[in-house]
């Protein structure tokens, strides 16, 4: 449209008006040549010409122009005292000259570019193609900040009545018509008229003095805040466009109650908000923001069309980009804060939601003041309430709401309550994190208690903001959460539609799993902490349980809250009704119960997600559970200290524990850990469970299955522990019995069964059915020392002293006590010995052995009875496929068994006749239920060397000798007597990972260096034992294995037979033994010779045994027989000479 042609036809008379205020002395922005002043004076006249040109084309009413001239004269008289002309006659004369020249120019094709006073400025500032269009020139000068006009007259409303009927009744002469035209420009159907008003609006908003009544309402506030000059001679600090920006910032400071904030008058506040509202359509109208963001607009929003607030929204979306200028970001933030105070400052939001606001009566609440009603937060709450109630809100409005909800979550400073009440928390913990919602999440973390205490008013402000933004309905509203959890959503929740409320539920289900990342975990828990405190913030829960909550818990509307109702009270009411029986009545609907269970499963992950629990147990959490920081540990800690809790906390923990006993699936972490066991053994129970507690019973029964992992076992053990404390926590027991469980009965029966088994009783005193149930109980109790109260009470002191850093569960404390058995107090030592005795009889009760060796048991012992697992593992200990950890555990158990024959049930049974016969003196000296430190086994070893044991006992001792020959630790007496010698003479051998008899060999080699008699005796006993069986000497056997195969293969092992074979081969010069074998044999002969000297036979029986077990037995026996024969012959001969009988005596 070519406005210049229409401007040439302008008719009528136009009075001159004051244009420019007095330029303060020294001001560089407003001083210039008279030539520039003349050019600047022209735009107002041109603007008026354009207005009347359009009027003339529409109605051509000359009487209207006369009214306009009268209006101009009247306006001149009103504002003359404020303009420059009042104090500057020269300027006034120039104004009159300009007005006089207008009458000469209006009949010709006059152009602004033809004015001599403006030609140089236009050449310098505006493109040449715009010179023919006076309005385009005017816009160019406005955009360049070169035009400053001071007043605008009004026109008759009748001139525009054909286009804008809403403005026909506006009062004349006060500037209201221009405001009305701008406000209703969207209703203009004529394109040319609409474009004209739009361009005129740009000119109007370039100077606050052109806005109707603005100067009168805000004069005092402008002066007080030093936002510019409105009186002659006063200093003008800002440009005219910056005056409104300065007032807006003052309004924001007042709302945030900043230090030194000026209280702006109410009528000025309304004027400021009105200006912001009128400029909400096109960002060009906010002159300060336009000039601040001109470059950023080109950078981020180049393709975004101006109008309808589109450029504003585009810039808002890029506000936290690194390349965004700070000045533009500041201007955008101010604009957003104004929107937070009055939603109408957002053109797009007000337009999109206009009908919905009217439909749901969101702007007619007479109980609220107008300022509160206009707040963005009130609008969001009202419309969100409609959405959550299932009402229809237009998609366009919901889209706008989501944009501004995201805006509130991104920048905490847009909420005055947060800025006001959380100032100290921000300064202490969250400074420097203002971008992309990080400050808000930092405050949430403080609110959770992770970074210290938080002021209640700040906590309340945070809760209110979360309700306003409602991120539970769409996770994308929370930008910090969205960015942190993007990878998790793409992997774990990709099957859920983007923006669906179930995304948050999906993230909670994957909390503490491998798919969860740390940053997402923190952001999620921070948000869920506040969602958990208001049940309405979970949209799915609210939808399914709205009617139940209203019926059972007396709830209010979605956007209504009760100060008297504590956080989480509604949900606590719901879950109490969720598990009511049919007899109790008033149960939840099925859909609501499902959602309540879902929330319970999620909140079990963190005690802070249960507001009632945290509120009542805050003191106890700090007292008993301050060090429990892992997921789920705090609730377990409270359950462990149930008897120590205060009454309120004990009640809520007890109620929650009862719910767990009925529906263990509430324990999400436990269910996740036990999923393999559930899938393998309990899937039918898990699928069909209805308030019966069957799933936990199934897990307990399958606790030792191969699918059971450590986490699941610990969780099930914890559940068993709390069941022992109170029968209410055992659902089935609670429904069947009315008195507490007595663990002493289990212990008594267990002792009876053990004694009958060890004594080979013909008839068991405990029935088969009872034994089966008893075994289940024993297996359960073996995992944790706390499940055996008698043992636990006896060893509390030792646990605190020796195992204070060892966690309960997995039998770790029991294992610690076993390893430190020699340091235990007598009472604890006695109980641990009893426990070991039971475990050796039944290996399945040895939790650590079963846990560490579960894979090896599956590999080697699938066909073995559970009680004989250890025996099976010992037989396969040296297999190449044996797991090192399991091998180490087997060795530990062998060491334990060799300390006392009573801990080796197989040996005890095989040698039950030999032990009293040969080792009675040791038994008489021993005390009941204390270890004999291997004395009985050492006694049996000596008798084995003497070949005096029964066959069954001899076989068991041979096995023990062969095992201890490879590992000196399996010989308790050797380890005790030679501890110093091993550490000084055989350090390297003892430190070796593989035990191959090198320590024993070292002691044998250093026999002459041994000073301690007890150690020397043990080494000599080893030499004596090796004579009886070469397998007892692993070094010699390894060296001579090939020779044994070649020369002694037909000779059975044992009783020194193979050793005698090798000695004979050594003496036979026809046989060539392996060099290593020959060397080792010679060493052994020397050792035996030395042993014979230092340890002579103690009696004829011992001497005879030494001869019989000697490798030179045949030689010795031959010599002895030859000597006896010689003596016999000599006796025959000598008897004839010493006692001769005469013939006479013979004849008699």
TrEMBL record:
It holds the Pfam family Cys_rich_FGFR. InterPro entries: Cys-rich_GLG1_repeat, Cys-rich_GLG1_repeat_euk, GLG1. It is found in: Golgi outpost; Membrane. PANTHER family: GOLGI APPARATUS PROTEIN 1, SELECTIN LIGAND RELATED. This is Golgi apparatus protein 1. The chain crosses the membrane at residues 39-58, 1115-1138. It comes from the Eukaryota. It is a single-pass type I membrane protein. Cys-rich GLG repeats lie at residues 263-323, 392-451, 453-515, 587-646, 765-822, 823-881, 948-1011. One of its GO terms (molecular function) is fibroblast growth factor binding. One of its GO terms (cellular component) is Golgi membrane. Keywords: Glycoprotein, Membrane, Repeat, Sialic acid, Signal, Transmembrane, Transmembrane helix.
């Amino acid at each position: 449209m070519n406005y210049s042609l229409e401007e040439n036809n302008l008719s009528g008379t136009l009075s001159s008006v004051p244009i420019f205020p007095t330029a303060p002395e020294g001001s560089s922005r407003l001083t210039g040549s008279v030539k520039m002043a003349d050019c600047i004076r022209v735009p107002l006249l041109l603007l008026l010409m354009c207005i009347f040109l359009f009027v003339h084309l529409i109605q051509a009413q000359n009487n209207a122009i006369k009214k306009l001239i009268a209006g101009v004269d009247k306006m001149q008289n009103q504002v003359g005292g404020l303009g420059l002309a009042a104090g500057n006659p020269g300027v006034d004369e120039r104004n009159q000259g300009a007005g006089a020249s207008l009458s000469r120019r209006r009949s010709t094709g006059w152009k602004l570019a033809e004015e001599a006073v403006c030609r140089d400025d236009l050449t310098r500032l505006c493109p040449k193609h715009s010179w023919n269009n006076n309005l385009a020139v005017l816009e160019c000068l406005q955009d360049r900040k070169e035009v400053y006009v001071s007043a605008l007259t009004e026109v008759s409303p009748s001139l525009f009545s054909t286009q804008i009927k809403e403005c026909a009744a506006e009062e004349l002469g006060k500037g209201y018509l221009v405001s009305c035209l701008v406000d209703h420009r969207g209703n203009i159907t004529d394109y040319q008229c609409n474009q004209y008003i739009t361009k005129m609006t740009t000119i109007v908003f370039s100077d606050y003095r052109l806005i109707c009544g603005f100067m009168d309402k805000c004069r005092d506030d402008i002066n007080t805040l030093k936002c510019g000059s409105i009186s002659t001679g006063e200093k003008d600090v800002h440009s005219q466009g910056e005056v409104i920006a300065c007032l807006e910032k003052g309004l924001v400071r007042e709302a945030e109650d900043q230090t030194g904030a000026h209280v702006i008058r109410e009528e000025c506040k309304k004027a400021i908000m009105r200006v912001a509202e009128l400029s909400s359509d096109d960002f060009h109208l906010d002159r300060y923001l336009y000039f601040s963001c001109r470059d950023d607009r080109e950078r981020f929003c180049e393709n975004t069309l101006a109008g309808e607030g589109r450029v504003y929204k585009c810039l808002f979306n890029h506000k936290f980009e690194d390349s965004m200028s700070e000045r533009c970001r500041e201007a955008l933030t101010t604009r957003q804060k104004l929107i937070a105070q009055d939603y109408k400052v957002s053109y797009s939001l007000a337009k999109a939601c206009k009908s919905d606001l009217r439909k749901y009566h969101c702007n007619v609440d007479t109980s609220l003041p107008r300022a509160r009603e206009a707040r963005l937060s009130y609008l969001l709450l009202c419309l969100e309430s409609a959405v959550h109630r299932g009402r229809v809100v237009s998609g366009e409005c919901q889209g706008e709401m989501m944009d501004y909800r995201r805006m509130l979550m991104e920048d905490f400073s847009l909420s005055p309550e947060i800025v006001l009440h959380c100032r100290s928390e921000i300064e202490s913990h969250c400074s420097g994190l203002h971008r992309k919602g990080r400050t808000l999440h930092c405050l949430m973390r403080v609110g959770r208690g992770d970074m210290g205490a938080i002021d209640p008013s700040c906590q309340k402000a945070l809760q209110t903001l979360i309700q306003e933004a409602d991120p539970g309905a769409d996770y994308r509203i929370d930008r910090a959460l969205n960015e942190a959890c993007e990878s998790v959503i793409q992997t774990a929740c990709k099957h859920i539609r983007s923006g669906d409320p179930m995304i948050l539920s999906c993230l909670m289900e994957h909390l503490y799993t491998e798919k969860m990342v740390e940053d997402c975990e923190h952001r999620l828990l921070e948000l869920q902490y506040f969602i958990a405190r208001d049940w309405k913030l979970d949209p799915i829960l609210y939808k399914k349980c709205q009617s139940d909550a209203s019926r059972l818990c007396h709830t209010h509307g979605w956007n209504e809250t009760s100060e008297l109702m504590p956080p989480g009270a509604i949900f606590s009411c719901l879950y109490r009704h969720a598990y009511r029986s049919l007899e109790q009545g008033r149960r939840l609907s099925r859909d609501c119960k499902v959602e309540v269970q879902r929330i319970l499963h999620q909140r079990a992950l963190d005690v802070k997600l249960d507001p009632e629990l945290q509120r009542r147990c805050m003191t106890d959490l700090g007292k008993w559970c301050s060090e429990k920081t892992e997921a789920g540990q705090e609730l377990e800690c409270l359950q462990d200290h149930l008897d120590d809790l205060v009454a309120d906390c004990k009640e809520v923990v007890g109620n929650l524990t009862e719910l767990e006993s009925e529906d263990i699936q509430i324990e999400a972490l436990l269910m996740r850990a036990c999923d393999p066991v559930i899938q393998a053994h309990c899937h039918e129970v898990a699928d069909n469970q209805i308030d019966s507690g069957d799933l936990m019973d199934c897990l307990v029964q399958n606790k030792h299955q191969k699918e059971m992992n450590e986490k699941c076992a610990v969780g099930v053990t914890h559940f068993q522990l709390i069941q022992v404390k109170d029968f209410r926590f055992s659902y089935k027991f609670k429904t069947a019995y009315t008195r507490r469980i007595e663990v002493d009965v289990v212990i008594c029966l267990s002792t009876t069964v053990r004694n009958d088994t060890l004594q080979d009783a013909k008839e068991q005193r405990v029935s088969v059915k009872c034994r089966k149930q008893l075994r289940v109980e024993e297996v359960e109790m073996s995992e944790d020392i706390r499940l055996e109260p008698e043992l636990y009470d006896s060893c509390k002191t030792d646990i605190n002293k020796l195992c204070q850093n060892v966690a309960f569960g997995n039998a770790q404390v029991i294992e610690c006590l076993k390893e430190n058995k020699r340091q235990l107090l007598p009472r604890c030592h006695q109980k641990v010995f009893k426990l070991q005795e039971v475990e050796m009889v039944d290996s399945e009760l040895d939790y650590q052995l079963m846990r560490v060796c579960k894979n090896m048991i599956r590999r080697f012992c699938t066909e073995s009875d559970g009680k004989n697992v250890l025996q099976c593992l010992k037989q396969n200990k040296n297999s190449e496929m044996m797991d090192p950890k399991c091998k180490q555990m087997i060795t530990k158990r062998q060491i334990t068994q060799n300390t006392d024959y009573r801990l080796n049930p197989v040996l005890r049974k095989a040698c039950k006749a030999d032990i009293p016969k040969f080792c009675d003196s040791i038994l008489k000296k021993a005390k009941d239920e204390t270890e004999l430190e291997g004395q009985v086994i050492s006694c049996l070893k000596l008798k084995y060397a003497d070949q005096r044991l029964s066959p069954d006992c001899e076989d068991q001792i041979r096995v023990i000798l062969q095992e201890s020959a490879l590992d000196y630790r399996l010989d308790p007496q050797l380890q005790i007597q030679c501890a110093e010698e091993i550490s000084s003479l055989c350090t390297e051998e003892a430190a070796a990972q593989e035990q191959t008899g090198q320590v024993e060999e070292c002691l044998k080699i250093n026999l002459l260096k041994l000073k301690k008699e007890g150690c020397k005796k043990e080494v000599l006993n080893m030499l004596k034992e090796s004579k009886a069986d070469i397998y007892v000497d692993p070094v010699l056997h390894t060296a001579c294995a090939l020779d044994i195969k070649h020369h002694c293969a037909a000779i059975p092992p044992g009783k020194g037979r193979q050793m005698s074979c090798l000695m004979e081969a050594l003496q036979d010069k026809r046989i060539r033994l392996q060099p290593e074998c020959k060397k080792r044999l010679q060493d052994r002969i020397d050792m035996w010779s030395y042993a014979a000297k230092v340890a002579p036979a103690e009696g004829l029986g011992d001497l005879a045994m030494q001869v019989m077990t000697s490798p030179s037995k045949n030689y010795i026996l031959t010599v002895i027989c030859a000597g006896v024969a010689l003596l016999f012959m000599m006796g025959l001969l000598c008897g004839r000479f010493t006692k001769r009988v005469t013939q006479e005596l013979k004849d008699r």
